[in-house]
Amino acid sequence: MPELPEVNTFKRYFDESALHQKIARTTVFDDKIIRNMSGTAFEQLTQGRTFTGSYRRGKYLFARLDNGHDVLLHFGMTGDLNYYADEVDRSKYERFVFQFDNDFKLGFDCPRKFARILYLEDREAYIEEIKLGPDVLELSEEDFLVLTKKKKGSIKGFLLNQKYLAGMGNLYADEVCYQTKVHPASVVSAIPTKKRKAIYAKMQEVIRYAVDRNAYYKDYPEDWLWQWRDADAKAPDGSSVEIEKIGGRTTYSFPGWQKLYQ
DNA sequence: TGTGATGTTGAATG
DNA sequence: GCATTCAACATCAC
User: Fold this and answer.
1) pTM for this prediction
2) Gap from A153 CA to B13 C1', in Å?
3) Measuring from the CA of residue A151 to each C1', which nucleotide is nearest?
C-alpha cells in the first residue's frame, strides 16, 4: 500500500489517534521489525512517553516523543496502523502495539514484515545518514531540473530512488510516466527540458490529488493507469501494454503511446 | 503450487 | 566516490 499519499494518510490517522496520549505499555511481538535495537529495549524506551507530533518525509513517518526522540515508522510493502479498543479488532499481523492511558491501542500491522521501525535519538542525523532526498511535494521545479540533467539511468529508476526525491513508488511512478507520455525506460538526461518540466508538474499534480483524497483509489479519475493495470490494458490510442522490469520493479507501459527517449 | 507483490538494503559492477 | 543494477528480505494471496 504505502507510497507517499498512503503514508500521508497514515500520518493523519496517527495524529488523530495517538497524539498527546501517554503510552502506558508497549508490546513487541516481532523483534526483527525493530531494526536498531531489541524489542525489549524499544518497549522500555517508549513506555511512559507521550507522542507530541509527527513529521512525514516521503514514505518515512517520524513520530516525535516528549523527550525529543523519534519513533520512525516505515511501512514497507504491507504496513498499516490500527487504532482500537476492542480485542476483536486486533490484527493477526500485529507486530507491535502501543497501549495508551485511555486503554485504546495503536497496533502496527505488517503481514510481510518488510516494515522498518527504528528508535531514533536524532532524526536529522538519521535522514542525513540514509541520504533521504527531499519530499516530492517540497521539491522545487528548479531543483528537479538540476537533478535530472545528467542522470544516465531510466526515468523510472530515477523516480523510485528515494535519495533523489522521497515519496514516489512503483504505481505513482508508472502513473506519471503514462500521463506525460514518456516511456519509463527513457534515459533521464535524454528527455528534453520541456518534457522534464511536464513530468515535474504531473508528479506534483498526481501526488497532490492522491493526498487530497486520502489515497483512496476509488476516488481517482477513471482514466488513470492503475485502474486497468493488467495484461489486456490498452492506451487511449489502442496500443497494447508492455510489462517488463524497469528500475527493478514490474512496470506497465504502452510503447505506442509513451515515447522512449534515449 | 508456483509466482509475484504500492519497498529498501547492501553487495557487486561500471 | 558516484551511479546503477539486482538479489535478498518474509509472508501471504491468487
Assistant:
1) 0.95
2) 15
3) C3
Q: pLDDT by residue (tens digit) across A80-122?
A: 999 999 999 999 999 999 999 999 999 999 999 999 999 999 9
Alpha helices in chain A (DSSP H): 4-17, 39-46, 123-129, 141-148, 155-160, 170-179, 193-212
Q: Which of A196, A197, A189 is nearest to A151 (CA)?
A: A189
Give the closest nucleotide to A150 (alpha carbon vs C1'): C3
The CATH classification number of A136-253 equals 1.10.8.50
CB A6 within 7 Å, strand B:
yes
CB A58 within 7 Å, strand B: yes
Question: Which residues in chain A show pLDDT less than 70?
Answer: 1, 226-228
Nucleotide whose C1' lies closest to the alpha carbon of residue A4:
B6
Say whether the CB atom of A130 is under 7 angstroms from strand B.
Answer: yes
Sheet order of strands, A94-100 included:
A23-28, A94-100, A105-109, A80-84
pLDDT score for A141: 95
Selected from 3.20.190.10, 3.40.50.300, 3.40.50.1370, 1.10.10.350, the CATH number assigned to the domain covering A4-129 reads 3.20.190.10
Nearest nucleotide by C1' from A160 CA?
B7
- What is the reported pLDDT for A216? 84
What phi and psi values does residue A76 have, to the nearest 5 degrees? 55, -140
Distance from CA(A14) to C1'(C4), angstroms, rounded: 36
Domain ranges for chain A, please list them. 4-129, 136-253
